[in-house]
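Q: Structure for this?
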Amino acid sequence: MAAPLLELTNVSTHFHSPAGRVRAVDGVSVSLEAGQTLGLVGESGSGKSVLARTIMGLLPSYAEIPEGSAITFDGQNLLTMDRKARRAISGPGIGMIFQDPMTSLNPVMKIGQQVYEGMRHHFGTSKAAGRQRAIELLTEVGIPQPDVRIDQFPHQLSGGMRQRVAIAIALACEPKLLIADEPTTALDVTVQSGILDLLQREQRDRGMTLILITHDLGVVAGRCDQVAVMYAGGIVETGSTRSLFARTRMRYTQALLDSIPRLDRPPHERLKSIGGRPPNLITPPPGCRFAPRCAFSDAQCESAIPPMQADEADATHSFACWHPRDPEQTAEEVA
Amino acid sequence: MSQVLLDVRDLVVEFPTRKGLVQAVSGVTFELRRGETLALVGESGCGKSTTARAVMQLPRPTSGQIVLDGDDLVAAGKRDLRRLRRRFQMIFQNPIASLNPRKRISEIIEKPLKIAGLMDAEKRRQAVEELLETVGLDPAVAMDKRPHEFSGGQCQRISIARALILEPDLLICDEPVSALDVSIQAQILNLLEDMKQRYDLTMLFISHDLAVVRNVADRVAVMYLGRFCEVGTSESLFDSPAHPYTRALLSAIPVPDPTVTPKPIEMIQGDLPSPISPPSGCRFRTRCPVASERCAAEVPEMRDLPDGRAVACHHPLVGA
């Protein structure tokens, strides 16, 4: 088996705040092979965006990555690199797309320039060649009249079009890994599927590796090979998409799936909500972080952190739970 | 048939802009029967929130009739409107921004009672405490705190309490769960359902999320560029959409099941046309896969289908 393109080992990111140390990401280990799509799912504050920024090296100055964390990308440890070497990786190595296409683009720079800026920086591409390539990229991401759009500013485009431009910018340097942080959350559903289709197509055509960060399990289900579910700074369950949905083990993953309103359910059906809210990350609960909200928790859950363990049927599927769900049991039996 | 509580006829809302007049809502007509939940769905910019705000008289609509239980809100004078406002209240999308950050929770919730001139201070306090309990917050803890000390979900509970303290007949919910996480969203949807039973509420529910709408609504109205495309019971509309736009919206929803491969959306990709100069005839025709010449020439009128729903389309997908 080939070495993974990206391997995170015990990665933590802490923020210093006046109230204390916030453990935004706490001991995350995950690996991703080249050409795969990983869906990183979690609610707000679960640490998924901070994890993405940690990989990208885009953390604010008050962030700290404790000793013992390692991020290996393409054989190199990103955390021990100097700034210059790290910078050379952003772009041709790892590209990123952000949630809000209104604010992630430069409002006073023409679109074309934003697309070829990275190529000029990394490869010394000439202006004329960069412009030509920008038109090709804008065409590829589905922007009509690219030769006109290239000289326009972001405010002249709709939200969906801006996100396509952001994708073109990220693709310009041919990254091996693309991190898309909630790329469709700010967009309408009808625009969402177009953007997701585009990302999927580019991923396939370029053999690119993709991390798709989302809070929407529906987005992950149809489009990712592998899923990692985050809760309160840690990964609580990960595995192949099929196995994770079909043999859900961790109680939080199941509760999250149960709380989604579904089109195939009758109107006014009572939703199975999760009581309470996610814990404070300055003083997280000592045991399982989901224990205070979990219907199955006991004394062990409250005192000891459950280790990641492999699912019996599928070794690539693992979860952190003291009282995992029996995957053979159907929903009807529980009710 | 149950009694009509809200009757909206030919509602038009226009806004002046530098580029000309924008008609955000172009002649919308609907009824809301007592005790039912009607959902307005559509993409951003379709006029669903503007319609809701027009019912609230915030701002007052350009033309049309909005009759709440016999009283025309559009024709009502300022004083009458203030008296009538007790009967229709609203909750908003951003629960934190919709609460005054400088006021205590007790002050926020009792304010409507004070404005309406109801009850003395002691009674008001009691009413606030009871309602906080009802919406799932501990009055002893919450009363003297300010909004920033609560999470988004808790702030939405406070907004719901503020809207319900006057025991309104009509509750307008503008994207009440869009800003919340899935696990919290389910709590608030369940709470709204409980409150609807307890206070005999009639609800106008605005959302862009069709799965949420499926859960809360009895009837659904689909809007596109300021007009209604289709209105019907939630079963009929979700099971067999009659308007191509309804079908497109439904096909775009990601299903949380890996065995379902995402299907291409049944709509021509492209941007929403400008509401300043909407397409002639049917406004959806520029993105509609079944549009014909007739669609460009003639505005489709709302017409009833045999199963009781209404659709504005020259080529409906069912019951043609």
